[in-house]
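Model: You mentioned two targets. I'll fold them one after the other.
Researcher: Yes, keep them separate.
Model: Target one:
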Amino acid sequence: MPTDIETQPLLMLDLAGLTPDQEERELLRHPAVGGLILFSRNYQEPEQLHQLVRAVRAERQELLIAVDQEGGRVQRFRTEFTRLPPMATLGRYHDRDPQGALQAADLLGELMADELRAFDLDISFAPVLDLDHGNSSVIGDRSFHADPRQVVALAGAFIDGMTRAGMAATGKHFPGHGHVAADSHLELPEDPRDRDALEADLAPFRALAGRLEGIMPAHVRYPAVAPEPAGFSAHWLGRVLRGECGYRGVIFSDDLAMAGAAVAGDYPSRAEAALGAGCDMVLVCNDRPGAVAVLEWLEGRRFDTRVPAAGLRGRARAPMDLSRRRQAGDVADLLLKDA
């Protein structure tokens, strides 16, 4: 294989603990690594997080550092962070008071992003744009609402708040994970609906495509539309997302270590399928040998027309106004009572 081709930074991986060890520091310096995702095991308290991020930046200043900090049950950092409500509470609030709910979504989006940007973290993989069909336990109250119009309104307000805090937004899980009961962490779900029936699920992604800088597809197969799961499908990522929806941002694979990705083969095969279908960065989490296998496979390979994920690095921002921060905290507390 040619060795004079520049290796592209197309892999996002994880760390085992509270600080990177020597092996992990070497991995972070690998030119195929473009991002790092943090989990609850990587957080103990604020000063430790500052030190962790500084250690990572000392190895590669340009790395994209991400976390899942949606709110509700998907909030990796909790101690001394505001406890965020599940997004379904905003949907129920919107049913009662649309304007109040939009203001609350804006405040919570800004608060979530502001707290992370204070530690030089770049993105939270949020917001969830899946519809709540009442079928999916893995989505459930992570969804804003069952009505796509309300999802668009609330997610749009949440994105406004994130933007104000200097954070790019990533919508997930394209084209919609909310109709399947199976958990793609454990198996490959199949959604049997045809394209017409999927239009409501697609609506939030279509409406917000111009405001999202990241999108993550689902490890879900829609056999009436395409044979491959969405994250491995050129039809879904190329024809529908890039073509019909006009999306121009970064496409992140969902974690290739999830059981829903195993249909594509071993880890290099999974990465090849995702990148070949149109993903711009692939995630391999909680499986160090798998991540190393992808790194070795990426060396000396070239994928044209990738959207650089480094463009999602956090922006300069003024810290959230204290009065708005207090207001956002009050909103979070109030909505948690409805969780």
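Model: Target two:
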Amino acid sequence: MEYTTGAPSWRLVLRRALGGLRPRRGAQRTRGWSVGVPLIALAAGLLFTTSARTADGTQLRDDRRPQLAQLIADKRVRLDAREKTAAKLRAEVDQDTARLAEVDSPVKQARERADALRATAGFTALHGPGITVSLNDSPRRGTDLGPNAPDNDDLVVHQGDVQAVVNALWAGGAEAMSIMDVRVISTSAVRCVGNTLLLHGQVFSPPFKITAIGEPTAMHRALESAEGVQQFRDAVADFGLGYTETVEGNVTVRAYDGSSDLRSARVAE
């Protein structure tokens, strides 16, 4: 039985005795939403402030490639300046060594032995008949459609292609060689990054020109029989890559003018 007078009912008294009336769910949702809105607004404000400070007056989604290109150009200028400084210092060392050799017999003998090896080591310019090989990327694009459409790797000159030509020319009796007019010596390493060539700290873009001094017919036969060169010639026919051979009646391969310091060496077994 439940009373309908103004006095609390026995059920209400019992609820209060057990800890009070529980709030309605609707009231819970209202209070939760009223607290969540300011928190969301605060978080959004923090994100906007962080983005503004990071942008520092610029747009975060701007294309940064021009900045990267400028950074590369600045590094190349610094590298060129340091190479000129290094060349000047090497010249001064050679002059001081020459003056010392005039009064010191052991230094004179060591200098004479070094001078006798300079031509073989590539530190003197060489002139004579030879052959020039040029390798170039294809003008086609990897986006070409069709069942036999090439991908980007099929259309560019790779490190192995340059190395195949270099090795074939040495095997054909080349006496001196240059790549992009940079003298190749025993410590030279050919490296490719994408479609660019790295040689002695310098970066080159195709076409890649390789010039060798020696007997042209023998070097041509070596190129014809080299498997790596033949594979590149097949790619020339399939994908439009560039390959040319030019016989040189009298060509100059200039002397190597970089550092001759060795970072590591191993005794041959």
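Researcher: Noted. Anything on target two?
Model: The beta strands are 126-136, 176-179, 182-183, 191-193, 196-199, 202-204, 208-213, 242-253.
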